[in-house]
Structures are given as structure tokens and as C-alpha cells.
Amino acid sequence: MIKMIQWYPGHMAKTLREIKQNIKHVDIIIELVDARAPMASQNPMLEPIIRHKTKVVLLMKSDLADAHITEEWVRFIQKDSTFALDMNVNDKKNITNFLQLLQEIGEDELQKRKAKGIQKKSIRMLIAGIPNVGKSTLINRLANKRIAKIGDRPGVTRQPLWIKVGKQFELLDTPGVLWPKFEDQIIGMKLAAIGSIKYELVPAQDVAAFVIKYIGNHYPTILLERYDLDDIDDMWEVFIHIGKRRGALEKGGNVNFDKVAEIILQDFRSGRLGRVTLEKVQ
Questions:
Q1: pLDDT value at position 109?
Q2: 3-class SS at 59?
Q3: Reduced to 3 states, what is the DSSP secondary structure of residue 216?
């Protein structure tokens, strides 16, 4: 297991500086977190910058997360007077609900401006989140056209971009931002499991073992149904079992543990294991 993960490319530091510079021009902050790990995927470096702004937290990829736990997270976040919604970008109803919420918040912002004698009609929003949280796909859905590049590889440098959303909103897109180091190895494991940390930074076998252990403790029937596993005490035997069952073999018939780890992580990230959330509301 890792003790600390350190990864802070120069473009991420630059992005934080640009967020600080643009924050005064923004009315609403849209913060994206992964519904499978809402706390681990919330960047603590953003809060001091955005704390005085109206904020909407979107729990992204909710179709891959445990629906009941996602509901609990939404209620928990809303207790702090923060707007929160679960979000599956492929669900038109989710997009419609989000746009309706933005419209309501926007009207309030316009009324505040009017009271101050400000006639500017457009509402400016800033969208921020960690890498690979689904930001690009969301932006393309909101703009009804392909504007943001989409990929499943974290750490790709992109420039901040203002995007028109409907007649009333302007949206500032920013690259995904992580923080310099994860002193809590569990946070690092969760972020690696959902694909927000580069593969090279954390051994895939360790991450896969973490996922297996968590699911075995909280969703044991999933392992039985997917891998015919009912005992995870010996992780070596677990990998051997899955490798043979899924054909992850080398020449000579030996199990390739790296391939097994990749199978497990892809099964988890794609939802083939079922709807799994790695964090519960405490």
C-alpha cells in the first residue's frame, strides 16, 4: 500500500491561479464530484476560493453509484445551504432538472443586481472539478453541441474557455484540478479506483485489491455474481481465481496479475460490477 501520492502538474497550479483571477466575474460555482466517492473527489483547495459564491454540487456518474447512498449524500450536502443534485449526463431528465435549478438561481442573481442598479442580463458560471469526473460530457450536453474534448485519461492540459449556454448563461470551463498530495492513502486509492489519478502513479494491483476488499465487505453478492467469489481473505487466491475465470493468462497458463487488475478496475469503472459507492455518509 502507498503512504502518500504526490502529483501536481504545472497546468493544475495555473488553473487554480486562473480560478482565483476569474472568481470575481462569476455568479455561480458548479462543483463536480464523483457520486462513487463524493468526499474523496472534492478538491479541498477550491473551498477557500469559492466559499463566498453560490454553489451547486453535482454528484456525477450517479448511474454508476449506489442510488440510495447518493440520495443520502445529496441530503447531506444540502444541509450546508448548498444546492446539490445527482447527475447522469445521459439522462435528459437530469439535465433538465439542472437547467431548471440554474434558471431559478439565475433569476435570484438578476434580482440582486437589479436592486443594486446593475442591468447586466447574463449569468456567469464557473465549472470546476477533479480530472475525469465527467465535466466535458456535461458541458457538451448543456451547450447542445460538441465543445469540450472528452476523454478517460486524467491530466490532459486544456485552457479555460467561456461557453454560451442558452440565452442567459455563460459558462467558464477549467481543466481538472487535483491537490499536491494525498496524505490519506485511502483517498488516493478511491481516486485511483474511479480513474482520476494517472495509472502510473498507483500500482493497479493495489487499487484492484482495494476495490475487491471494499465490495466484498459492502456488496458481497456482487463478487459472487460476477466472479463466483465468496471468500476474499487471500488476495493472491482471489487474483488467481479471477484470472483463470476471465482468461487473463500468460504463456504456460500462469495468471497475469496486471491483466486481472485491469479487468477488475474496468469492471468497476464501467458499472459492470453493479452500482457501487466507495463512501457512505458518516
A1: 73
A2: strand
A3: helix
Helix, coil or strand: residue 198: coil
Q: Where are the beta strands (DSSP E) in the chain?
A: 5-6, 28-34, 54-60, 83-87, 123-129, 161-165, 169-173, 181-182
The C-alpha cell 447518493 sits at 70
State the chain's mean pLDDT as an integer: 83
- Which residue type is seen at 178? L
CATH class of this structure's domain 203-270: mainly alpha
Alpha helix (H) residue ranges in 34-91: 47-50, 67-78
Are 270 and 58 spatial neighbours (Cβ–Cβ below 8 Å)?
no
What's the confidence (pLDDT) of residue 242?
Answer: 97
- Ranges in the chain annotated CATH 1.10.1580.10: 203-270
* Number of CB atoms found within 10 A of residue 134's CB: 20
- What is the distance between the alpha carbons of residues 176 and 7, in angstroms, rounded to a whole number? 13
Say if pTM beats, i.e. exceeds, 0.90.
no
Burial of 149 (0-12, 13-18, 19+ CB in 10 A): exposed
Q: Which three cell numbers stand for residue 124?
A: 456567469
Q: What CATH architecture is 5-181?
A: 3-Layer(aba) Sandwich (3.40)
Q: Which residues contact 161 (CB under 8 A, 6 or more apart)?
A: 147, 148, 172, 173
CA–CA dist 132, 264 (Å, integer): 18
Distance CA 134, CA 138 (A): 6
Domain limits, CATH 3.40.50.300, in the chain: 5-181
The DSSP annotation for 70-118 comes to HHHHHHHHHTTT-EEEEE-TT-HHHHHHHHHHHHHHHHHHHHHHHHTT-
